[in-house]
Amino acid sequence: MIIKKLLVALVNVGAVSAFVSAQTILSEKDAVELALKQNPQMKVAGLKIEKQEKLRGAAYSFENLEVVFQAPTGDQFRPGVMQRFSFPNVYANQIKLQKTNVNIAKAEQGVTTNNLIFAVRSSYNQLNFLAEKYNTLRRQDSIFSDIIEINDIRYRVGQISNLEKINGEAYYKQIQFNLLQTLAALQNEKIQLAILVGRPEDTSITSVGKLVKIVDYEVNQIPDTTFETNPLTKFYEQQRLASRRLLGLERNKRAPGLVVGYLNQANYSNSNYEYRFQVGVTLPIWYWTYGSRINAAKKDVDIAKSQSTLNNYQLKGEYSKELAQLRQYTTAVEYFETVGNEQSKEIIKSARESYRLGSIGYYFYLQNLNQAFQIQLNSLEALKNYNQSIITLQFLLGEQKY
């Protein structure tokens, strides 16, 4: 029965291996560049910029031309036209405001880009971790499956007790459970990466499957507290500028406007002038309307300023928190690099030799093997967390390298 299960497991492993070999393997750089080209978020961000660019012409907005007909003599209507113009500074401020709106859309695109790169790199890091974890569990599964097969024979000939047999099977079932969970998580992460790179229907997208320590980035222990390179900071700065320009626009709207007209006021037969010009001004006497808009614009300035300050506080807090976590992960990675990984190899080697010589029993042999592989899994977890902290710090500073 066990032999049959092992054969089925081997077939499954072969199927998985064939599936993996059929994958489209992307480097981290390839994945990021593909996402920036094909992810719908980038298209939406680009369309927003195009929209604001097309609204530049609207900055020169005039009131609709008035075409009027009058009957000054009472016997027939005479045509005329009227046009109202705002104070010149109004148009100048509208142009500046629309230019700022374009910059806001571009800054928003920068935020989208930064977020997307972070998401792709995080997914890529997680995918490499899961692939390494899956391979480690497969090695552990292979060792324990051999042990279980041998112990089944040893139990039938009376060399080990039923309790020892049950303990071995319990260890093995736990390994199989972890293996299945990791495989499911691995396949799900591949789907997430495929979605991020803009190919949600492509099941062949995957990473290189190697979890490598990020070493080409020097962590800034005391970062620039303004976070000027973070796209969110630029976005909120443009928001502040837009709110100030909107306030200037509302204030200029209180200035008098100009009205010009070209009218026929008389009958052709009894007038020396067929057409008459008309010039006038508009007076902003409804002060409460302008006052309300100006006060609202002032509040927009205060809101934009507060949002910018809040964003800076949040970035500082997140950076400090992530920096503290990085120190912990650095210590853990250094431990596994210098001590832990070598101990794991030595434990496996010594346990096998001691068990072969009869120095330790079956139960302690399993315990030592399990401990050794747990060290390897913990090492992978620490390396994944270390890389993720680096990725997060780069994301917060807007200095992502890939």
Provide keyphrases for this structure.
402 residues, alpha+beta, four-stranded antiparallel sheet, two-stranded parallel sheet, 8 helices, 6 strands, 8% strand
Give helix and strand order, one letter per element, not per position: HEHHEEHHEHEEHH
* E-strand count: 6
Question: In DSSP terms, counting alpha (H) and pi (I) runs of 4 or more, how many helices?
Answer: 8
Question: Strands of the biggest beta sheet: in what spatial order?
Answer: 2-3-5-6
Shape: elongated
Percentage of residues assigned to helices: 55-70%
Q: Report the mean per-residue pLDDT as an integer.
A: 85
Instruction: Outline the biggest β-sheet.
Output: 4 strands, antiparallel
In whole angstroms, the N-to-C terminal distance is: 49 Å
Q: List low-confidence stretches.
A: 13-21
Radius of gyration, in angstroms, nearest whole number: 36 Å
Please report which band the strand proportion falls in: under 5%, 5-15%, 15-25%, 25-35%, 35-45% or over 45%. Answer: 5-15%
The structure class reads alpha+beta
Written overview of the protein:
Strands 2-3-5-6 form a 4-stranded antiparallel β-sheet, with no helix packed on it. Helix 2 crosses helix 4, helix 4 (88-156) runs antiparallel to helix 6 and helix 7 (287-357) packs antiparallel against helix 8 (362-397). Helices cover 69% and strands 8% of the residues. The longest helix is centred in the C-terminal third of the chain and has 71 residues, at 287-357. The chain contains 8 helices and 6 strands. With 402 residues, it is an alpha+beta fold. The protein has helices at 2-21, 28-38, 40-54, 88-156, 162-196, 231-252, 287-357, 362-397; strands at residues 24-25, 66-70, 78-85, 205-206, 257-263, 276-282.
